[in-house]
Amino acid sequence: MQKATHLFSYRPYWAKRFGSAPQLPMSRAEMEALGWDSCDVVLVTGDAYIDHPSFGMALIGRLLEAQGFRVGIIAQPDWHDAAAFQVLGRPNICFGITAGNMDSMVNRYTSDRRTRSNDAYTPDGAPDRRPDRAVIVYAQRAREAFKGVPIIIGGIEASLRRIAHYDYWSDKVRRSILPDAKADMLIFGNAERAFVEVMHRLAAGEPIEQITDVRGTAFMTQQIPTGWQVKDSTQVDQPGRIEPPIDPYAHEAACDKKERSSNTTGEEVVQFMPRVQKGDRNKTVIRLPDFDQVVNDKVLYAHASRVFHLETNPGNARALMQQHGKRYVWLNPPPIPLESDEFDRVFELPYTRKPHTSYRAARMPAWEMIRHSINIMRGCFGGCTFCSITEHEGRIIQSRSEDSVIREIEVIRDSVPGFTGNISDLGGPTANMYRLKCRSEKIESACRRLSCVYPDVCSNLNTDHKPLINLYRRARNLPGIKKIFIASGLRYDLAIRSPEYVRELVTHHVGGYLKIAPEHTEQGPLSKMMKPGIGTYDRFKQMFDRYSKQAGKEQYLIPYFISAHPGTGDKDMLQLALWLKKNSFRLDQVQAFIPTPLAIASAMYHTEKNPLRKVDRKSEQVLTAKGGRKRRLHKAFLRYHDAENWPLLREALKKMGRADLIGNGKQHLVPTWQPEGTGNRRGTQQIKAAPGKKGGGGKKQSGRARNRGAVAKPSQPRGRRR
Questions:
Q1: What is the pLDDT of residue 619?
Q2: Percent of the chain with pLDDT over 90
Q3: How far, CA to CA in Å, does 365 sit from each of 50, 335, 362, 370?
């Protein structure tokens, strides 16, 4: 893999003489107190400003400060007026704009496209403090506020919209966010390397339109640079015969050789190895089908998604381009991952680890959740098709050193208000991928697998959990530390390969319940998710129960499941409901599938094609629950015990020929009786009780009584929203 410039090797900008600010300023008064007459960069974010490394703008802000730049923050500005973007004055170098830690549409709307009633990243959880598609709106207002100042957009919202993408909330394919925001540059993925390099080059006087060679950046261009070889995406993976027969790029396409592997069920697994001359790779750009084509042809959209995901390994990814009107969106290859010492220094910058003082006593729900937790790694090689971690953070795991993690625990212990001795989490995107990587850098740089653990754990993957075990042991033995909890999601198909890890986890780091995510029980949806079969969950549960018993502890697993995921039929959801009932699970909250931009599952949802396999008009059709009623039904199966869902389930079971599951016995899924005051929503009809009986099945149940198994009984642990 290409060697990157060390993050902290740049000569500091002249403003380094001002030193570190107690907190990055949000007002002119704070700037004056620091002796500043202006900011070099102004960062605009849709979140409240919390000076903690778990919040993207704080991390980038402190990193740029360490490079010598004066950084100001505009948090949750009034987007209706450009004046809100002028409060810190004209930035000397650029604006940096993000929607915040979450995509603004996911943040504001539920899976049913209903407005959420709260926002965890806002003081006191208040809603409606950010606009829809915040990056676009903020960029437009910043341009109005100060014409001529370069605008750089980034964060997860911009990252996941860097090419033409399906937008669930408008139910259409939208353009790349770059032309809509009219930004000068987009930084995708983890922004440290790209933002630092771009800032130093801008500070040296280089025009932003000439900065076109930084990995992890995207920009608009009208022409292909001299010396570049253009390779049509159909040469990487031919989409198959398209009828009526047309050539997507007006010249003959050829299909390179491909290598595939098969899983145990015979299903083809994407593992392409396109052949390109080594000398040409760094000057080769893959041309994706243009915006107009993917809007009008779902086969080409699925093909574009497939090729995009083949070019995500920083060791072998090539540049991508996609035409939008008369210009091209140009994506450079992904950034080189941070080395451990760089990662350590980024997380050990002088954060206050608290909300900005201007918020006074306001509650910050997101901060309260993570203020006693520690991020030990980033990235994920799981490749789950519904997840956006790979598209944003990449597949290669970046881990902090053990010493750095220990130092952060000590900082929390000694300085964070309200600390009682409990660390709420040592984790990241996945709790147990710390220090896991390919055994060979050469193989890692050449690999094009979308997942290192599906259909089975790759033989080249180092699954040794000993570094993580050692970290746990050292952390919990620190003076003043009572308990170290593991709250991040656990990859249990990796955990079962290390019984010692499972024993360590279960004995010392579970607080009664451990969350894991099998997501489903049936092979159809699991194959579209790229998740292991339920048998792997069963093996992990056996280990979990055995080690809990040995430790003398009563502990339970909390499994998470997704409803309405592509590839899921009504029968699949019924089988999952029967599994839940058999295992005495009554889920309190469930996750309905949300098609987020760029995710492979979102391409399945939109096109009803499977980009994990060869895509053409005759290829596999993917079952997709799109209608509101169908999505409600799938969600209702997960909450089969909720009386509000019984009328809908009864109707569905009759249509499915499974009326035998309707009755008042233990073997039935839903009863024939209906409690008073339930089941009337969305046109469902209440079932009248039998004469002389309340609810048709004995005594009337209150809402609390109906759900008591989901809350109180240890044998029926409560499910939680992911």
A1: 84
A2: 82
A3: 11, 32, 10, 9
Nearest to 227 by CA among 322, 99, 319: 319
Q: Mark which of 617, 641, 665 sits at the end of a domain.
A: 641
Q: What is the pLDDT of residue 401?
A: 98
Residue 64 falls within a domain, yes or no? yes
Which positions ≥6 away from 684 have C-beta within 8 Å?
647, 648, 651
- Quick one: which H or E segment has residue 240? none
Domain count for the chain: 3
User: What is the average per-residue pLDDT within 326-343?
Assistant: 97
Instruction: Name the β-bridge partners of 115.
Output: 109
Task: Give me the CATH number covering residue 540.
Answer: 3.30.750.200
- Rounded-to-5 percentages of helix, strand, coil across the chain: 35, 15, 50
In a domain, 167, yes or no: yes
For the stretch 266-289, pLDDT in tens is: 444 443 333 444 447 889 999 999
**Same domain, yes or no, for 618 and 669?**
no
Tens of pLDDT, residue by residue over 214-223, are 999 999 999 9
- Decide if pLDDT at 259 tops 60: no
- Averaged pLDDT of the chain: 89
Q: Which domain holds residue 51?
A: 14-214+327-331
Looking at the fold, whether 619 and 690 belong to one and the same domain comes out as no
In a domain, 359, yes or no: no
- Element of type H or E holding 629: helix 628-638
* Residue 315: predicted pLDDT: 93
Q: Decide if 325 contacts 212 (C-beta within 8 A).
A: no
Q: Are residues 515 and 593 in the same domain?
A: yes
Asked whether 154 and 187 are in contact (CB, 8 A), the reply is: yes
pLDDT of residue 417: 84
Cβ atoms of residues 574 and 525 within 8 Å:
no
